[in-house]
Write a structure and sequence with these properties.
The chain is of the alpha/beta class. 37% of the residues lie in helices and 18% in strands. The chain has helices spanning 8-24, 46-56, 70-83, 97-108, 127-130, 142-149, 152-157, 172-179, 218-228, 238-241; strands at 32-33, 60-61, 64-65, 87-91, 114-119, 135-139, 162-166, 188-191, 199-202, 212-214, 234-237, 255-258.
């Protein structure tokens, strides 16, 4: 929208220039990189992460806790709109707000999809999320029972492309290791909280001055081992990891495309 009046030439010209630049930008350039070529650095400081978490612990979708920051949600909606996954598999349901957000966002994009969300308990699930027929919540200990609740026959039949979100904080060989053989080129997976300064716990949620625990590099190192065992199968999609600057999210080097 341009503003008319004595400053019309300034505002209108500036907006038109911005619009042209947006249309000609090439996000494919240098978009994909090998994991081992990416640096373990980020523009995010601990203070920025603390304030992002203030909003993260307050964000709801249709009255259900989502547990995603504004940075996460903007980047993920861009991914869902571009990649249009027919199947979403989420490890870590909590209240079901994120599964609900995935389903509604994909519906807005006109994508026929189904969300499968797994967690070790269903006690936190909100009734609003449980009522949806395009979301299946599965109660299971992913570290022990993933093969039982996501059997080979089922995985072979799920439509592609897939988007997999790993947020259950178990060894990746236990969760993603079971799914990887059934992934196809073009599928995506996201490993959450790989940033060493990601805040994984507040003593009192929603307050940046509260006690907190940092994630450290444990999960990033686990991802490194997971990918090292599968050379050439995944590339980091830098468009998403660097959406807000170099590794500008809690998901350091962990938006991954199956190739």
């Amino acid at each position: 929208m341009s503003i008319k009046g004595e400053d019309e030439s300034y505002y209108g010209g500036d907006v038109l220039s911005l619009n042209k630049a947006f249309k000609v930008r090439n996000i494919e350039e240098n978009r994909f990189a090998k994991f081992e070529e990416r640096e373990t650095r980020s523009i995010l400081t601990i203070e920025i992460n603390k304030f992002l978490c203030t909003g993260k612990f307050r964000t709801t979708w249709n009255g259900v806790e989502v547990m995603k920051s504004a940075v996460d949600l903007v980047t993920l909606q861009d991914l869902l709109g571009r990649e249009k996954p027919a199947t979403v598999i989420e490890f870590g349901s909590y209240a079901g707000g994120c599964a609900l957000w995935y389903a509604d966002t994909l519906k807005c994009f006109g994508v026929k999809s189904h969300v499968y969300s797994l967690d070790i308990t269903s006690e936190c699930l909100h009734e609003t999320a449980k009522k949806r027929d395009d979301i299946t919540f599965i109660t299971a200990d992913v570290s022990k029972d993933v093969e039982k609740v996501l059997p080979e026959k089922m995985l072979k039949e799920l439509p592609h492309p897939w988007f997999i979100s790993e947020d259950c904080h178990v060894r990746l060989e236990k969760s993603l290791g079971h799914l990887e053989p059934f992934m196809k080129p073009g599928d995506y997976m996201l490993v959450e909280d790989t940033h060493p300064l990601s805040i994984v716990n507040y003593a009192v949620r929603g307050s940046p001055s509260s006690d907190f625990e940092l994630a450290g590099l444990g999960k990033h190192d686990d991802l490194r081992l997971f990918l090292k065992a599968r050379p050439g199968k995944f590339l980091v999609d830098c468009h998403y990891t660097d959406f807000f600057g170099y590794n500008g999210s809690p998901m350091m080097n962990s938006y991954l495309k199956r190739v």
